[in-house]
Backbone:
């Protein structure tokens, strides 16, 4: 073992001092991307920024009515969300985030840390401004809030049979929100609310129901005033779900 380590180190040193360095220093366990690399296995009891990054990716895999707190503490709720994520993608479901789980996440994410089926450009229309400016929070915060929603939506679309979800409204500045008749307390102004439009599938009520186990506290659908042509999903601290026609 030690011999192998020594010869590996010499090879690396040779590579550094020589001209060919590319490749040799790449991690043997592959597949991190330009976004974030987990360097250790995470399980209950762990804490840190890498736990928060994991929590963002599995926040859409909660039980109905639950919302995962992104607090960097790997407790039972995080373990259960990881377990559901693993089962959802056909991995061994042990609630421990190791190489298989991380490799699946790397597979699911783009270099800008968004999930592969969603992009910032779908959420930043902002009445034609194409940015995250002018809301109730800084543009950087709004963008990060939107990224978190994207991961919840990535889980939701997978659970709905890998059907595309159509974003009809994402972030809105305060003035954009009032010009489209949004509520004065609308979560769209902080990047914490998103509207999903209708398509051939999934149905409006299927989307509304799926939102319950994707961590959304605000869920408004058919029968709720102004929501007969979309489903509104949002993150906040208290639960308000309404879709009288579902
Ligand atoms: Zn909305």
Residues:
């Amino acid at each position: 073992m030690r011999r192998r380590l020594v010869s590996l180190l010499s090879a690396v040193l040779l590579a550094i001092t020589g001209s060919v360095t590319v490749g040799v220093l790449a991690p043997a366990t592959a597949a991190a991307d330009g976004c974030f690399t987990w360097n250790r296995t995470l399980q209950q009891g762990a804490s840190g920024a890498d736990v928060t990054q994991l929590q963002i990716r599995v926040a859409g895999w909660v039980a109905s009515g639950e919302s995962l707190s992104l607090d960097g503490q790997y407790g039972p709720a995080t373990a259960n969300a990881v377990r559901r994520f693993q089962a959802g993608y056909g991995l061994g479901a042990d609630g421990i985030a190791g190489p298989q789980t991380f490799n699946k996440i790397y597979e699911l994410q783009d270099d800008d840390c968004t999930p592969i089926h969603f992009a910032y450009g779908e959420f930043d229309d902002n009445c034609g401004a194409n940015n995250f400016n002018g809301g109730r929070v800084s543009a950087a915060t709004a963008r990060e809030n939107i990224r978190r929603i994207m991961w919840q939506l990535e889980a939701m679309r997978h659970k709905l049979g890998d059907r595309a979800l159509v974003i009809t409204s994402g972030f809105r500045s305060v003035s954009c929100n009032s010009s489209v008749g949004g509520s004065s307390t609308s979560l769209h102004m902080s990047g914490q609310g998103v509207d999903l439009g209708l398509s051939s599938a999934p149905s409006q009520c299927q989307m509304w129901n799926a939102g319950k186990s994707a961590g959304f506290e605000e869920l408004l659908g058919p029968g709720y005033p102004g929501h007969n042509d979309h489903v509104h999903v949002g993150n906040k601290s208290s639960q308000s779900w309404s879709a009288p026609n579902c």
Notes: Residues 35-108 form a domain with the Muramoyl-pentapeptide Carboxypeptidase; domain 1 fold (CATH 1.10.101.10).
